[in-house]
Amino acid sequence: MSSVNLSVSLGNIQLTNPTILASGVLGTTKALLKRVAENGAGAVTIKSISREPREGHKNPTVITFEAGMLNAVGYSNPGVVAAAREFSGLQEVKVPVIASVIGTQKEDFAHVVEGLSGSKFSAIEIPLSCPHTPGFGLLAGQGTPDATFAITSEVRKVTKLPIFIKLSPNIPEICTIARAAEDAGADAITAVNSMGPGMIINIEAQRPILSFQVGGVTGDALRPIAVRCVFDLYKTIKIPIIGVGGISTGRHAIEMMMAGASAIGIGTGVFYRGIEVFQKVCDEMSQWMQENGVRDIRSIVALPMIEQPRMIKICDILEESPKVKTFFFKMNLQFIPGQFVMAWIPMLDEKPFTISYIQKDIMGISVLKRGEFTQALHQKKIGDILGIRGPYGKGFHFQTDLNLCIVGGGIGMASLATVVDRYRNVTIIQGGRTASEIIYQKRFPEMQLCTDDGSAGFKGTTVDLLRGLLTTQTFDKVYTCGPERMMDKVAELCKNHGIDCEVSLDRYMKCGFGVCGQCDCSGQRVCIDGPVFTTKELCRMEDFGKTTILKTGERVILHNHEGH
């Protein structure tokens, strides 16, 4: 089976194959890690280490049932001092070794990481998601965006090693938490930890079987939940994902990677198929690849993202301005402000639009009439059919308690509207050439307006208005969307004032999922790597604000063609 390539990478860590021993299983000694590596694992993770020794819960701690396993081991481990001795000389293991580190306070995580620094680990995994151990994970409130950001930031201060954050499937806003980890410097997301907790009762004993009564649910029962989490995360974050949950066969591994995982963790699979499960999974993956003409395993990552449109009925239409209408439809999407969908009119064309309204299962896209497709869309009526696929791309990064400023130019305000809905207490600037281009005035009456001709609000540009505000106000972050030359000036102004800025780019797209290359901006695919980019990313994008690519693929000067 040498004709296929199973090698993958997690940042700068190279793996000969995508299988990783998940934390909590077998990783108690260096000898066991060596044995797992010898049985085909591409990398291994040690059992979670805390600041002080822990005995964990009393037995029974693990129980099987028809669809998987329940476990409540309770993070038993020898503590950081003894662990550092046990895991010295890790070069003997021959594959990358990941240290799993736990704590009750953010300082505990950093302390343990520093204590293990002499052991030559390849990466650090931080599980913030245990559902059954008091003082840790979910039971310690660590599964929130703020806690995730704080803990990741604290660990980043003390190590240059890659940091993997392990998340819970129990949290509805898992994507928001992943973005917080990414913002704080995480290098990958491990998804997911066990779910629940669940309980199994012995009806003869009339008591729960586990000593802690409840335990995390793993195995087959967890796998479809884990696949869905990975699928949603892939559309949200830029860092790699390690997919974990119920993987014990090659087909399971292929499925998880198709959902968006760059590598896969195996835990309960060791129980089902023995320590040889890693080699078995690799062999089964190789066989599937040969049978299906796949030469490189990396080519299947997120393959189902190439999806077909869902045909939906327009349930309402709102006229925002003489040239802008918002079309509403019933659809429940996992959406982060700044992401976009592709709207399709059969036999005509397909175009990208941001979600500008979201309330429960009702969503809306705001459309500026300016070409053949948008003119046809403006002629649609309530009850007409429209194709929608997505959402796609990376949205805005969210953090609570930010002093935020929104700068929208014309229809660009549509990309920012749901940010305002989420934050509410923000400073909003919207500009246009004339008053007729201003949208959402009733929706956001607190907006500060500006127009080129002075017909609404301040006479001047959004950049002029922002510059004036910065003489009396300070902002933690500025989000902007509008004409690219406007955003270029906003970003430069923010840079000069030491303010983080994120821009939402609009480039001509054909596919929406990173294949056609039409939306390139200095090697960044706006549909996948964006459309939201940070100031740091923009510094490496020389084409931003200067050139764009036409439908034909020709690169041209931006100011001659912006808006065409």
From TrEMBL:
Substrate binds at K47, N193, S194. One of its GO terms (cellular component) is cytoplasm. FMN binds at S23, K47, S48, K166, V192, G219, G245, G246, G267, T268. Gene3D superfamilies: Aldolase class I, Dihydroorotate Dehydrogenase A, chain A, domain 2, Dihydroorotate dehydrogenase, electron transfer subunit, Nucleotide-binding domain of ferredoxin-NADP reductase (FNR) module, Translation factors. Binds 1 FMN per subunit. GO terms for biological process: 'de novo' pyrimidine nucleobase biosynthetic process; 'de novo' UMP biosynthetic process. InterPro entries: Aldolase_TIM (IPR013785), DHOD_1B (IPR033888), Dihydro_DH_chainA_dom2 (IPR023359), Dihydroorotate_DH_1 (IPR024920), Dihydroorotate_DH_cat (IPR005720), Dihydroorotate_DH_CS (IPR001295), Dihydroorotate_DH_ele_sf (IPR037117), Dihydroorotate_DH_Fe-S-bd (IPR019480). Catalyzes the conversion of dihydroorotate to orotate. Belongs to the dihydroorotate dehydrogenase family. Type 1 subfamily. PANTHER family: DIHYDROOROTATE DEHYDROGENASE B (NAD(+)), ELECTRON TRANSFER SUBUNIT (PTHR43513), DIHYDROOROTATE DEHYDROGENASE B (NAD(+)), ELECTRON TRANSFER SUBUNIT-RELATED (PTHR43513:SF3). This is Dihydroorotate dehydrogenase. The gene is pyrD.
